[in-house]
Amino acid sequence: MLRVLIADDEPLARRALRRLLEPHADVDCIGEADSLARTIDLVVRERPDLVLLDIEMNDGDGFKLFAAIPSPPRVIFVTAFAEYAVDAFEVEAVDYLLKPVAQARFDAALERARRLVPLPDRDGGMIELRAPARIVRARPADILAVRAEGDFSHVHFADQSPLMILRSIGQFEAELPAPPFLRLGRSIIVNCDRVRGLETRSRDETRLLLQGLAEPIGLGRAAAARLKQALAARRG
């Protein structure tokens, strides 16, 4: 789950950014700041992964965030002023968006942020996966999903073919940390930190999009409802 803070002194601008975030199920908007001072306070207390940051605010410019905090989070600048673009990239901003921001342009910037923000290693250890011809050691945080097939399970990782492992899905459920892992039914466990979105195809079919997985995973009605409920609870 990508934890995002919105920082802009204009209520309409904050509302617009909220709407741009809505399609992204893997994003948790942890709060809003209407001033630079409030932004600094929330960054220190809440430690967001990403800040959507205005530049010209009522009590100072957004660049002062970098001077106020030794290790600031990743930042996407969202501003009405084009002249600060060079300064933004000097502080290694993820992106620089000009208002009003189109959804497609925002989505591209957010995807860039996902690649730059490391997922937390919640488990801290490794698990051993016995494939037919080899043994693989993996961090739980790197697993996207586990799908059952008889006594075997297919373990999905980003940007590679799934591994067939001689272990039941029940054994995976007992070993993987929850959260972020959630069993959605008899045949699938999902890493909720890796959920990129859900596409409703029909009343009985929803497609699950995971970061790093090219092909969506089909979910039935009950599994999709359980996942939506879990993601909503995580957002608070």
Mean pLDDT: 88
Q: What does the main sheet amount to? A: 5 strands, parallel
Listing every helix as H and every strand as E from the N terminus to the C terminus, the arrangement reads EHEHEEEHEHEHEEEEEHEEEEEH
Tell me the CATH superfamily of the largest domain.
Response regulator
Number of discrete helical segments: 7
Termini gap: 13 Å
- Described by the principal axes of the CA atoms, the overall outline is elongated
Instruction: Output the strand order for the largest sheet.
Output: 2-1-3-6-7
By DSSP, the count of extended strands is 17
Approximate helicity band: 25-40%
In CATH, the topology of the largest domain is named Rossmann fold
User: What proportion of the residues form beta strands (DSSP E)?
Assistant: 25-35%
Structural domain count = 2
> What structural class do the secondary elements suggest?
alpha/beta
Poorly predicted ranges (pLDDT <50, ≥5 residues)?
none
CATH class of the largest domain: Alpha Beta
**Gyration radius, rounded:** 20 Å
**CATH architecture descriptor of the largest domain:** 3-Layer(aba) Sandwich
Description:
- The protein is of the alpha/beta class.
- The chain folds into two domains: 2-116, Rossmann fold; 127-234, OB fold (Dihydrolipoamide Acetyltransferase, E2P), CATH 2.40.50.
- The chain has seven helices and 17 strands.
- The strands form five sheets. Strands 2-1-3-6-7 form a five-stranded parallel β-sheet, sandwiched between helices.
- The longest helix is centred in the last third of the chain and has 15 residues, at 221-235.
- It is elongated and about 60 Å long.
